[in-house]
Every structure is written in C-alpha cells, then in structure tokens.
Amino acid sequence: MTHHTTHHKGAVTFKGNPLTLVGKMPEVGAQAPEAALIGNGLEKVVLSSFRGKVLILVTVPSLDTSVCDTETRRFNVEAAGLGDGVQVLTVSMDLPFAQKRWCGAAGIDRVVTASDHRDAALGRAYGVLIQELRLLARAVFVLDREGVIRYRQLVEEMTEEPDYEPVLAAARGLV
C-alpha cells in the first residue's frame, strides 16, 4: 500500500529560507479533519470535542518563541471579547509539560493548548507540518459550530504574526 503525501516546497519561509510543508491544507467549506492531540495533563484531546463552539484553531512552531508568545497572548485577550461561544485552541510540537508551564507563566486562561508532538496528526491533516524542522507552520483556521472550516490563513514567513483582524471577523460572524 503506497501512502501518497503531498509536499509543498517553499510554501513557507523561515527568515527567507524556503521550507517544505507536508500534507494538503483543507479547503474553506470542507469538514475539518479530525485529529487527536495531547492536552496539558497528557489526556487525549480530539478536535471534534469542540463542536458546538466556534473554534479558532491556531498552529504555531513553538510557544517558546517571542512571536508565538505575542500571538498567543493576543488571541487570549481577543477571545475574552468574543464570548463563551468561541474557543481558541493553539497547537504546537512543544511537549505538553512545556505548554502547561508556559500557559501558567503567561497567565493564559482563554486559550487551550495541545501538543501534536506524538504523531504530527494535525500537522499532516491540515498541511502545516514542516518537513525539515518537524514543527508546525504558523496558520489559523476558523471552524464553525458544526466543524466546517470557514476561514484559513497560512502565514508565509514564520517569523511574522498572522493578520488578526480577518480571523477575528470570521469568528465574530459565526457566533
């Protein structure tokens, strides 16, 4: 049985250097692929468990970088203004222990973090796994209450933050 994986060379860059993304990014209007992640307490976290809420799914290379730190704090603040019908889930390849420590230190209470380090299941399913680094590219997906992708954004240069306004507008429009 051959397993076909799509590779997109140069889809993202790190300080201008092209990197390869593994997998295919799901289209807007498609059902969001299921993926199992690991929560801060080592519990299994599945994407479908967020159904019934608008989900802002954020993928970042690592919470331990200044851009990801700024981004996650920003989403934490914005989420408070969006109300309880919206959940922000930030996924990285960081170990769950590191995510838990970081969230506690950063005072993050509105963003749930989960780790994709074991299988890169989400990275592959969403086409954001960076082949050369085994890290997740910086991207944002907005899922409606039924788990359909309504918005997506891939940040082409990893050292830059996403464009927040269209993400927040998409989430607001679904609440």
Series of secondary-structure elements, N-terminal to C-terminal: EEEEEHEHEHEEEEH
- Supply the helix-strand structural class: alpha+beta
Strand elements, count? 11
**What is the CA-based Rg, rounded?**
15 Å
Helix content: 25-40%
Q: Provide the CATH topology.
A: Glutaredoxin
Low confidence ranges: none
Strand portion: 25-35%
Structure at a glance:
25% of the residues lie in helices and 31% in strands. The chain is of the alpha+beta class. It has a 7-stranded mixed β-sheet. The chain has a 4-stranded antiparallel β-sheet with strand order 1-2-8-9.
Features:
four-stranded antiparallel sheet, alpha+beta, 11 strands, globular, 31% strand
Walk me through the topology.
Blueprint lengths: L6 E8 L2 E6 L13 E4 L4 E3 L7 E6 L6 H17 L3 E7 L3 H11 L4 E5 L5 H5 L3 E2 L4 E2 L2 E5 L5 E6 L9 H11 L1
Q: What does this protein look like?
A:
There is one protein chain. With 175 residues, this protein is α+β, with helices and mostly antiparallel strands. The protein has 4 helices and 11 strands, in the order E-E-E-E-E-H-E-H-E-H-E-E-E-E-H. The chain has one domain: Glutaredoxin. The strands form 2 sheets. It has a 7-stranded mixed beta sheet. The chain has a 4-stranded antiparallel beta sheet with strand order 1-2-8-9. A hairpin with a 4-residue loop joins strand 3 and strand 4.
